[in-house]
Amino acid sequence: MDQKQNIEQFKGQPRLPKFAIPKRYDLHLKLDLSACTFSGLVHINLSIVETTKFIVLNACELVVHEVFFTTSLNHLSHTCLRFTPCDVVLNGNDEILMLGFEQFSGALNEQLKGLYKCTYADKGVRKNMAVTQFEALQARLCFPCWDEPALKATFKITLDLPSELIALSNMPINDEKINGNVKTVYFEESPKMSTYLVAIAVGLFDHIEETTADGIKVGVYCPVGKSDEGKFALEVAVKSLDIFTRYFSMPYPLPKLDMVAVPEFFGGGMENYGLIVYRENEILYTDSHSTAARKQRLTIVVAHEVAHLWFGNLVTMEWWTHLWLNEGFATWISYMATDIMFPEWKIWTQFLQEINGGLRLLDAQEKSHPIEMEIQHGHEVDEAFDAIGYKKGSAVIRMLQEYIGDEIFQKSLSFYIRRYAWSNARTEDLWSVLSEVTGIQVNSMMDSWTKQKGYPVISVKSKDHILEFEQSQFLLSGFHGDGQWIVPITLCFGSYDRIKSFLLESKSENLDASELFPTSDEQNEDEYGEASWIKVNIGQSGFYRVKYGDELHARLRKAIEKGFLSVTDKYGILDDRYALCVACEQSLSSLLLLMDVYRKESDYIILSKLIDVCYNVLEVLRDAIPELTNALKEIFINILLCSAK
């Protein structure tokens, strides 16, 4: 069987065969920034675990010049045998290379992927910079490799580049040698990591640096003349390293962490081990020219990427199906870290606004998808980088944290990080650890949230101190889907000191809350007093909507009017009622009754929601019932003017 026939076995296969496992890459790249090309040499130490006549790995858009293998006769022998393959077959459609390789070359592309070029100005002259972006399947654009997250190896990188430029990679520089206009930079060997985390940046930079209490050198590389604009990001990175070191009970394992700002980059940031790459406008900040919103955005983005150093880099998803583990957790914990650094921002309230700002509407459509998407082939990975994995993933994690409790949740995550450090994990591995530590069957509960699309609306009614709960899948179309969840329900009775929680595991369930309802004396004292109202989903920590019966909703309106509820709960009640109105599950008149009790509201997040609701209602009615438009405008203006006072 020739190699062309051999490769037919692997066409369209989602994963590489496992008969050869990489252990170490020695990668030497020679960069020509003028010609925008590169050439290289890679030596890969392999472990052959099954008998095979050929080797299959990933390569894309590379020219392979020479291939050979060496092997010792036995583990004690210093004599090496050299084998030259009879054929080398590169299949571009499936991005796989049959057999092996040594010398290769390629072009610095302009598509912001693989090893690519971007341009910057140096004293008015446009120059080229070389940067890598290997997530998800793009290391193969730079060098032949086993380009799957589970096939971790160590990397020893050497670069040839113009002597006036700065070279950065995952690890510190071990040595430099200059030969005329070219210098060769040798980097220390990295710990085990996935190919998508390998990183290189070559260009002109200014540099600022701090050393953490643990001795980690943290540096920010900025465009020339803009080092002052990197100071705030440096401060956030140092604080984030300290927060996550304590939270995960695991020190950052590399000797340095560099962050580099580049002018052209596909995303906001990329968490490469030891060298995080950011788009310039995500990491540069000045007090005199940048907005408060930009400062908050920078803090969240930097904390997100630093969090990946543990959740993603140290413990990596086994395959792209579990991408949400990386992104959902990094999103959730970046808000947690931001809240620790800047509690005055009340960032969890803004998190709620972010989650509701489009995500819930997206996930309430029939075309939505589960958090955990089954990725059969690597080419499907890009579809998983969306708001469902990032934002909904982070929202259900926060819901789980609230249900389990902060302390035990932190303990569980620390245990998970220690168990799978330098290795790979699946979603079910995390649930297994959480179940083990907490004694709660987390698997079945969380599978209902990660393996099916959408979310529930919880209908709640009161009858003789019995609360009747019923769940159904919420859809904006007004129809009910067939989804069913295990829902952690939280509720309070007239006070945030009277709290009850339980799991709603079936379509409907009754809760006897007699001991929590006010006594007759309390009710007579004030019909809508502090002991009378019931709020479900305290702090909006649960990823579900709540539909109250008329009596319960009337009590909540009075509680809002009297100022008994928190900002997040007031926001949630308004947001839920508006969504239910859009889905034709509640009347417009019930929404207007609710909006009227927000007349004295002064909080930004609630006022923003009120304005959005007013605008959206008018947009719909302008065409549907134009004769009501002017009357509604008057109502909305009165509500907003009273709020503004």
UniProtKB/TrEMBL annotation:
Its cofactor is Zn(2+). One of its GO terms (molecular function) is peptide binding. Residues 232-449 form the Peptidase M1 membrane alanine aminopeptidase domain. One of its GO terms (biological process) is proteolysis. It is a peripheral membrane protein. It is found in: Microsome membrane. The active site is at E305. One of its GO terms (cellular component) is cytoplasm. Binds 1 zinc ion per subunit. Residues 22-197 form the Aminopeptidase N-like N-terminal domain. Zn(2+) binds at H304, H308, E327. Belongs to the peptidase M1 family. This is Alpha-aminoacylpeptide hydrolase. It comes from Gossypium tomentosum.
